[in-house]
Amino acid sequence: MMPVFILCLLQWQQQVHYTIEAYLDTEKHVLSAVEYCRYYNQSPCVLETLYLHIYANAFKAETAVFAQEAQVAGIREFTTLADSLRGGVTITSVTERDSSLTFHVRETILEVVLPSKLEPGDSVMFSIIYELLIPWKFSRLGYVGEHYEMAHWYPTFCVFDKSGWHRDPYHMIGEFYGEYGTYDITIDVPGDYVVAATGERIEVSDIAFIDALIRTGQKKLTGARRRVRFLARNVHDFAWVCDPDFLIEQERVGDVNIQIFYRAENKDAWRNARSYAVDAVTRYSQWYMPYPYKNMSIVNGYGYDGVEYPQLVILAIGETGLIRYTRLFELVIAHEVAHQWFYGILGSNEIDEAWLDEGFASYAELCYLEDKYGTDHSLITVPLVSPVSRTYLHELVYYVAQTNRIEQPILTPAYAFLDIPFSYTNSAYSKPVLFLRYLESFLGSAQFERIIQRYFQEYAFTHPTTQDFLTICEEETNRDLDSLFYRVLRTTDFSDWQVTAVTDNSVEVVNAGSLRLPTDVLIETEFGARVVPLSTERNVDTIILPASAGKVKRVTIDPYGNLIEANRWNNHYPRKFRMKPIFAFPSFDYYTILYAPFIWYSSFDGIQVGMYFFGDQFADVDFMKGRHQWFFGADYGSRCNKMYFALRYQTPVLFDYGVRTRVRIAGSNANDEMHFRAGIRNSFGIPFSRSPQWTVETYLAHSRMMSLEQVDTIDWQGGAVGTFGNTLGYDHAGWHAQLDVAVAHEVLASDWDFTRVTLTVEKEAYLGIPFRMRMFAGRIFGDAPIQEQLYLSGALRINFLADLFFSQAGSFSPQEHIHIKGHGNMRGYQTLHIKSKELFCINTEVPSRFPIRLFFDVGYYRTYAADFGARVVLGPVSLNVPFYTRTDEPWKLRWSIGF
Fold it and tell me: Where is Zn(2+) bound in this sequence (predicted)?
């Protein structure tokens, strides 16, 4: 047996103890505190300097790492704040037994030079007097009005482990790493403030104050200020939230006291929070290990959707939060409560190995949803709406990351994802969930359950690593899993099993990827079915069945659906196909065709009836890779005795890192305009990154007016128009620009010869309030029909969906009371049908992103134009009401409905 002292040297972990007395000044937004901290050196090393995080300094200067990363991430709010709103920590003194210690503040690190060496097995205690200027809340620490969220508010020891000191700064992406210890925290707050915090309440008067509030909903005040005290053991951080408007609900689960803190205006939104928390604590206590603390607080906060601290969860979800018609509020609670196990009890390094925290908590949250609502659970609770599960969303994230080649290895440090935060979502959350699902399926549920429970038994209140989890998996299963873990966690290799050939009695399966994960194939024949394990030793596996099995009917790779694989469409023979009415989320297994009947009425066509179809292998749009996406529809007008059709098709011909090329074809005969267009669209740029995004589309188009019966002849002329065009688009840092050049010539079977050049530039900005500006400039050279000219009030042609319902004639047509964004976009000139061969306009809208907005426009065509008015925006539809238009009738009401 190994001697105990040697074992301690191999498995050492530092311990800390904090006693803090603090005073919160809500007038000045300042916290004054004295912190007594003891550091226990249980390592085999001699220490001369101790290091502490002072994370609040991350917001103090624009040169800090957080500020620099915020700039890179495009978060401008930080740089516009006054110094008094950024906050920061001022260290007054560091003393030991009344003797001053030498210390240095280096951004977010406090270095304390010890007066003598700290030997293994010894401890040292010193005090820190400091003042925290609390920032306005744009991260985890700060205030909004009278509400305070106090995370990372005190100097806290950096972790010292076998890798040395972890003096990580406060990053934009990634969380934290702390030493376990004991916290004895006393805070002096205004008398009407309700405080939620890590740990147990100790102050008798505070306990009475909280009990009265729970029982009666009323606060029993005893003075202008009061003291609260909390004691927490075996935790690696301490956070608290206070607000004078908090109400509290309480529930017990065994020995655990769960308290829900919410603001009165959010009572309806939070009505189920207590039951969700109870359900989560009950399940996780059974699955992993009993919740080891006496208290848990779920708190209504600001900022992030959800953040976790020991025994404390802060959820920024209010009355307009993610709860109506979905299970997203429950999902967030289930996830953050899971962190009390995968973060609170298992204190892994969240910066270097984020998957041990976020991935496992996300997996626990998924198990919660499946246990409560079934494996086919839907996050949407609206009847008749296509279901979407949490598993599907994780698969979607992995699919997008993998097909766009923006995936990074799971064991990439969190801060390295700054350029493409979406990749962090995949690497820390989604792919780890898929890996753990696969691991459970591969190893067996019973064995996997033993692995997780042993993981907690051996590493509770310590800092386990990926290697520790791997070791337990190998010991429990007696398997060599090192290669599997390495390929999944440290590379971006992918698996792509596919059925490549099927005969009467044989099946050929190929893995086109570099990651050959073990899986099974289900083969169904005339006389039965059998499951065959696929070899991972070779890329091609040919399975030959005995003649007695009969002819092969169906083949399914990974019949249980647990494989980590982006392309599952080729896992089936024959390929899977489905038809759905109206709408369904894109499928990873089925080629899907949606269908919808159409019925409408118009004065020209009378009753219109028809059917529309939409088909694709997944959805093909920008960064979303689908294949063979098409649309076809036809409807018949009873009065005009005419048939209308529309056809569109596109598919990628190149889809790789930073480049996506698609072939696109479209044709229709709406409003008696025969229209055809074919082109190639190229998209350049890394999706979800801050790099510029470019689009280049080259196309040929031809249109011919078959008659002028269905259009306003003031806006349309007969004849054919054949054009060759190029469109260049640019998006970056909130700027959007588009340059269009189209040339019509007789060589293209055109009755008109002209060149049209237009430039549109848009920018959304923030100067106290958000606003949007748009500039349009255009010129036509040559002879163009009036429908190809530049319109002052907005575009002439309607987008496809609106084209089904509105014609080009009458009151509800473009240039009358239907507004289509484009061209001059001056809504005040609706109904005037003003068009020109040259046009320049500037549009301003404020406040953008709000339902009610004001617009101001100026322009020039053959004379100057100006207008202003209001918009009411409800999703994709708006009501536009100009107040003033620079015309002979400046105050005439010219309302329109916008699409």
Answer: 335, 339, 358
